[in-house]
């Protein structure tokens, strides 16, 4: 071994007695290059050859990765293959573009041989990965096969000949198809095996790209200080409790995670919960404060305790905790075990897996062939019904807080999945602060990150076999519910639909600490292991709320809803109640408003508690039996109808409509990559563009009034248009022809289909064009078209 200028050279002799020198250079960007060459043993020749090799290697790597747009330091190229054909999605003609396929420690990337086009003028470009990049954690399934068949790849070595075609399904619903037939056999085998290994094989958390990224990225502490409340200090929890005028206390006994790693470092409990009670059952059964109503009642959540019939200790402890919650306000409490009334995490996963198959389209012909069964397929998968159930459960809790002024305690096994969904939705419906962008981010931090949602296990970034059953898109389910609320009450939300879509994509970008750990204790223990001699890790890892890591300021302008109206200062009653009807094309078939078949929130509470706890003296904390009569099954409907009769206040209580047509498919997220369903110059973006123009005119009128010393009436103060969002949309429209999936898709070389899609043509041919098409609406007729 020879070491010169810090470069280690490993020399060995071959049969010809000329050494083979392997040069391993780790440059500042941590791009590892391995080069082999034959050199003589002359020191001068050796040194000059090393310099020449280093220059060539650095030049070639820079040229290659400049096209890939390396997000930052820390990315390492594992393998690559040239002359790879990337198929287009237009049809079955197998057309595409040639380029280089790479696999790094961050992503799978395709670099086209054709010159890139700047269609959007860099308006909405992600800094970390591009249009043809797939983060490794975003890979859902890989298929291999020939032109006419495919087989699911489950990992491991390719024993036989490598497949000539590779299909990658992504968790953000993109589909990539590559042909390896034109590449060198050895390169094709290496790139296929490398992608399968790094995307599907089990790995340790330390292998995720976030650690390499953070170790080599300068991220000043001042840059990390955002306005989003992180709920990692006593002050954050105290401030939130004071804001809602709560009547509880902040505890810090778990500041070093001595009580339980699943509990946050700081949290809030009822005042009657003693310090001794905190140490029992590792936090299970402990009522943790979520939010306080202005009337004095509050929402609590807890992880249920497995109760043993012969053991009265857990029953006595649970009785004491319920008593503490009841003492919070009016000596009343309602409990709800979400494990009994909502689907399990396994049911959520199965339903979503069936649902997403409708949008993982290899070609447009396949999409149109599935169009005839659109409604029935949506109904059978059950995903939209799970969304409805979660929204309805949240409405039931809201009714208890708003109408009955009752403390509510929701529970489930673990207390960090459906409890997070329901508690977050309740606060969105009741508290306008959480409908602002910063408020929503703070809500996610409080209920999901600090609340101990197992993001790592639920996303299964590490592809561990023993965590397969734990995988479930619970956080995505919450975002779906938020999107339903946003679509029904658009002006009430400061953040836009694009913001929710980008947030759902960011779950699978292995850079942000927000989605990398199961809880705060898990994060703390891992960082201590990385740096055992310090209290905090030296790694400066960003959170997902540091949007500048992914987007520039112009792109972030699109996160704001231009229709959002800030809270008026007075006289809100003069505003008219306008509730738009909901589109039917992307909804379930129309059906009556009905509650889930299982007993819901308003079941016989006293009998339920007696059965669970085995005690009778709890009845003095419960509501009278008349409140829990069988007629309460329709109380949610009555509660919603009574709310509808009141003047609409976007800064007050919001309730979702749960009728069949009101629960819709999130079009931007699920259909944005399917070219044939895009509407060029139309769709939601056309309405947004026109509204942006009107808002711009209103702004100009306001400026003119201000110059003349006049102002708008007090009823409209605060309802200023979102100038930055409006300007961004107008600027984009002036440069390109926008599609209905803006800003993710703009004008392209679209394939134009007949006015009547293939599925309907085939149906008409079979039926002889008999019958009225309107009568076939629910069977996949014209209204089934997107």
TrEMBL record:
InterPro entries: MTMR12-like_C, Myotubularin, Myotubularin-like_Pase_dom, PH-like_dom_sf, Prot-tyrosine_phosphatase-like. Residues 231-670 form the Myotubularin phosphatase domain. The keyword Cell membrane does not apply. GO terms for cellular component: membrane; sarcomere; sarcoplasmic reticulum. It is found in: Cytoplasm, Myofibril, Sarcomere; Sarcoplasmic reticulum. GO terms for biological process: locomotory behavior; phosphatidylinositol dephosphorylation; skeletal muscle fiber development. SUPFAM superfamilies: (Phosphotyrosine protein) phosphatases II, PH domain-like. This is Myotubularin-related protein 12. It comes from Oncorhynchus kisutch (Coho salmon). The gene is mtmr12.
């Amino acid at each position: 071994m020879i070491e010169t200028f810090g470069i280690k050279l490993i020399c060995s002799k071959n049969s010809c007695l000329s050494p083979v020198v392997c040069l391993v250079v780790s440059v500042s960007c941590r791009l590892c290059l391995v080069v082999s060459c034959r050199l003589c043993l002359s020191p001068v020749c050796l040194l000059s050859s090393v310099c020449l090799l280093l220059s060539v290697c650095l030049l070639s790597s820079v040229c290659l990765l400049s096209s890939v747009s390396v997000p930052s330091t820390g990315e390492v190229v594992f393998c690559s293959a040239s002359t790879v054909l990337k198929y287009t999605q237009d049809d079955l003609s197998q057309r595409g573009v040639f380029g280089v396929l790479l696999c790094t420690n961050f992503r799978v990337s395709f670099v086209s041989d054709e010159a890139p086009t700047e269609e959007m003028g860099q308006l909405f470009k992600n800094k970390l990965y591009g249009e043809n990049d797939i983060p490794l954690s975003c890979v859902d399934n890989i298929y291999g096969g020939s032109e006419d068949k495919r087989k699911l790849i489950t990992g491991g070595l390719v024993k036989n000949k490598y497949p000539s075609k590779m299909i990658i399904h992504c968790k953000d619903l993109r589909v990539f198809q590559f042909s390896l037939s034109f590449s060198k056999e050895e390169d094709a085998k290496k790139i296929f095996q490398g992608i399968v290994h790094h995307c599907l094989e089990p790995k340790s958390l330390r292998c995720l790209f976030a650690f390499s990224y953070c170790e080599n990225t300068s991220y000043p502490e001042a840059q990390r200080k955002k306005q989003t409340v992180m709920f990692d200090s006593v002050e954050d929890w105290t401030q939130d409790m004071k804001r809602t005028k709560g009547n509880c206390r902040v505890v810090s006994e778990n500041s070093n995670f001595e009580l339980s790693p699943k509990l946050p470092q700081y949290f809030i409990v009822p005042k009657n919960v003693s310090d001794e009670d905190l140490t029992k059952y590792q936090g299970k059964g402990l009522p943790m404060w979520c939010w306080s109503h202005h009337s004095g009642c509050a929402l609590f959540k807890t992880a249920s305790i497995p109760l043993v019939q012969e053991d009265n200790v857990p029953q006595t402890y649970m009785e004491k905790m319920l008593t503490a919650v009841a003492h919070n306000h009016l000596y009343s409490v309602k409990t709800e075990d979400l494990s009994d009334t909502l689907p399990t995490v396994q049911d959520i996963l199965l339903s979503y897996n069936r649902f997403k198959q409708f949008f993982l389209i290899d070609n447009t012909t396949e999409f149109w062939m599935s169009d005839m069964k659109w409604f029935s397929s949506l109904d059978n998968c059950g995903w939209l019904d799970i969304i409805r159930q979660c929204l309805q459960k949240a409405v039931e809790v809201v009714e208890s807080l708003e109408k009955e002024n009752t403390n509510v305690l929701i529970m489930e096994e673990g207390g960090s999945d459906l409890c997070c969904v329901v508690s977050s939705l309740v606060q969105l419906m009741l508290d306008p602060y959480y409908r602002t962008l910063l408020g929503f981010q703070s809500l996610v931090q409080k209920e999901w990150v600090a609340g101990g949602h197992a993001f790592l296990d639920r996303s299964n970034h590490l592809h561990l076999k023993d965590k397969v059953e734990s995988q479930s898109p619970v956080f995505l389910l919450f975002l779906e519910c938020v999107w339903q609320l946003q679509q029904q009450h658009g002006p009430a939300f400061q953040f836009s639909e694009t913001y929710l879509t980008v947030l759902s994509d960011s779950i699978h970008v292995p850079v942000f600490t927000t989605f990398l750990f199961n809880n705060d204790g898990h994060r703390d223990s891992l960082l201590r292991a990385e740096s055992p001699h310090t209290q905090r890790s030296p790694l400066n890892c960003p959170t997902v709320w540091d949007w500048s890591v992914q987007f520039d300021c112009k792109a972030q302008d699109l996160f704001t809803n231009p229709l959002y109206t800030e809270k008026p200062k007075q006289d809100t009653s003069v505003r008219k109640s306008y509730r738009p009807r909901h589109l039917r094309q992307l909804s379930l078939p129309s059906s009556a408003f009905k509650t889930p078949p299982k007993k819901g929130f308003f079941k016989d509470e006293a009998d339920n508690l007696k059965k669970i706890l085995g005690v009778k003296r709890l009845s003095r904390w419960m509501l009278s039996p008349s409140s829990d009569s069988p007629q309460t099954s329709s109380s949610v409907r009555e509660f919603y109808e009574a709310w509808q009769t009141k003047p609409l206040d976007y800064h007050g209580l919001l309730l979702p409509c749960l009728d069949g047509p009101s629960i819709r498919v999130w079009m931007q997220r699920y259909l944005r990559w399917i070219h044939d369903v895009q509407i060029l110059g139309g769709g939601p973006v056309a309405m947004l563009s026109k509204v942006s123009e009107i808002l711009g005119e209103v702004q100009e009128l306001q400026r003119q009034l201000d110059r003349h010393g006049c102002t708008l009436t007090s009823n409209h103060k605060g309802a200023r248009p979102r100038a930055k969002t409006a300007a961004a949309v107008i600027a984009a429209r002036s440069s390109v022809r926008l599609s209905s999936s803006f800003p993710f898709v703009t004008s392209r070389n679209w394939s134009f289909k007949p006015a009547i899609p293939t599925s309907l043509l085939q149906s008409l041919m079979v039926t002889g064009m008999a019958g009225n098409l309107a009568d076939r609406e629910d069977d996949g007729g014209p209204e089934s078209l997107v």
